[in-house]
Amino acid sequence: MAVSTAKIANRASYQWGSLALFMSAAAILTALGFEYLAGYEPCELCLQQRYAYYATVPLLFATLIVLSAGQATAATALFFVASLMFLANGGLGVYHAGIEWNFWTGPASCSGGALKPLATGSLMKELTAKPVVACGLVQGRFLGLSFAGWNVIASIALVIATLKAASAASSSRF
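Structure (tokenized):
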């Protein structure tokens, strides 16, 4: 029995989408593991870089369900949305890495040592809050890259995976 080209493309789209889902989940779990198990405190930009992963894990899961239901056009669009999220996240990672390498300055919220006026009612809340980590402070380098640098690499890989999934889903429509 011969397998149609559309089924092969659909399978390729599902494989690329599954890879992207796995990589996205692994990236956020790794970041959370470094924070809660290894004690690395994230800065404001680190936390912002997690948003793409928080959003794309359920998005990619839903996209795979849509794809398996035979809705290749909708799956193509959703994979493309995910790729745009990862592209923006990679840009944020480049911006963050540039701050770490002193290529440019970060936002004021990333200074880590700024004193802000306290209202009497929020004093206890401020005292028990986690300290703000400066965005330019590299907590560790692995193979020469900081967490922001690894986020750029992961984001590029995820852009490629989601675009390949979108391309394969698109070609399975015909």
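The two ends are 20 Å apart (CA to CA). The mean pLDDT is 85.
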